[in-house]
Amino acid sequence: MTDSIMSKAATMEIPINSNGDTGTLAEDDSLEQAAKLQWSLDEKVGSSRGTRDLQQVMVSGPNLNETSIVSGGYGGTAEGIIPTSSIQGPAVRYNAEFNKRIHVTGLGPNMHHSSSSSSITAEDATRGVAVEKIETMKKWGLNTYKCTKQMISERFGRGSRTVDLELEAQIEVLRDTKRKYETVLRLARALTNHFYNMVQTQQALGDTFADLSQKSPELRDEFGYNAETQKLLCKNGETLLGAVNFFVSSINTLVNKTMNDTLMTIKMYENARLEFDAYRTDLEELSVGPRDAVAMARIEAAQQQYQTQKDKYERLRSDVIIKLKFLEENKVKVMHKQLLLFHNAISAYFAGNQQQLEQTLKQFNIKLRPPGADKPSWLEEQ
To answer: Who is most buried in 36, 108, 116, 244, counting CB within 10 A?
Structure first.
């Protein structure tokens, strides 16, 4: 209604008399009433509505193609009417330039659609990872609960466990053997340390005797004999230290590597046995209960888990039997060689047989380190 009134007011013509005075017409009152009506409407809209309309006009521009400019007086010719379709105002140019930039930079609806779709895909991937982690934690928690329940039942004598008497006897023998071999290793290391200190003392004593033989002419021969004896004992002691160190190294490898590897497999076997018994007990409890549709589905799932744990238990049991067999063969072979070395070296040293002691080292392919080999070079110290 407001647009029709304003259009009428815009195209209304004012008559002019021959003397230049404007005449009074009845339409003046209607024009004044239309102006008052437009003013009251503008007052009701408010400043916020006016700001939004102004922004809309700045973006889209006025529709100048549907208006015209009237030139000339009342009753003039049509030549005075100028069409505005050829006039490009600032708003029209701004609108065209804005649309061009939107088209060039690609900030249109397609970009918003692609960004929204990519964000949805990322959210789905994140949600999938979170769900997978939750399922993994749920399975781990359920398995831990069942195993803990089974372990407590076994300790209090309420639950049954799978027992392999022959295999468990072999495992117990291995653990006892490992404890005894650890004792042998500890004592052999103590012997090595004590004997090393004795060799160092003999070397210092031999150097002192040699120095005194040079400074005491009256006791030169006596000090010289003792110096030579201590140097010979020191040399034989270093040879014996090489043999004992080789013995200690071999025992350490057997105890802390070979036996430990077998015991780790045994630990995995025992954990698998506990899981197997836990799922076996769960299946037995479900089999005793009702046989409705839900219970049958749970029994079927428990049967599958039981079979999986059984296969794992049987596989680790076979691995333990094989490793125990090979460990026993390796232990006998290694200890036979090392005990023979230790006996021959100790006997030759205390018998004073230097040639037999050196022959023992050659027999077992033991190479002695030259004096000062343990010390780092001057370049390494830098």
So the answer is: 244
pLDDT in tens, 105-120: 444 445 445 556 666 7
- Is the C-alpha dihedral spanning 256, 258, 264, 267 positive or negative? negative
What is the helix (H) or strand (E) element at residue 69, kind and residue range? strand 68-70
**Pairwise CA distance, residues 112 & 118, whole Å:** 10
Scanning the chain, the segments in alpha helix (DSSP H) are: 2-11, 27-60, 90-105, 109-155, 165-215, 220-253, 260-288, 293-351, 354-363, 378-381
pLDDT digits (tens, 9 = 90+) for 33-67: 555 555 555 555 454 454 454 444 444 444 444 44
DSSP tag of 155: H
Selection from 145, 345, 171, 337 nearest residue 242 by Cα: 345
DSSP H or E segment with residue 81: strand 81-83
Tokens of 89: 């105002």
Give the C-alpha separation, 331 to 255, whole Å: 9
Q: Which 8-state DSSP code applies to residue 219? A: G
- Which percentage of the chain shows pLDDT scores above 90? 37
Residues 272 and 265: their CA atoms lie apart, in Å, by 11
d(CA 248, CA 194): 14
d(CA 209, CA 247): 33
Structure-token match 């495992």, residue found: 171
CA distance 74 to 15: 6
Chain segment 26-39, per-residue pLDDT in tens:
444 554 555 555 55
Q: How far apart are CA 55 and CA 61, in angstroms?
A: 9
Tell me how far apart the alpha carbons of residues 361 and 278 are, in angstroms, rounded to a whole number.
Answer: 55
Cα separation, 206 vs 188, whole angstroms? 27
SS3 66: helix
pLDDT digits (tens, 9 = 90+) for 271-286: 999 999 998 988 888 8
- SS3 for 208? helix
pLDDT at 350 over 50: yes
Q: Do residues 24 and 17 make contact, with C-beta atoms less than 8 angstroms apart?
A: no
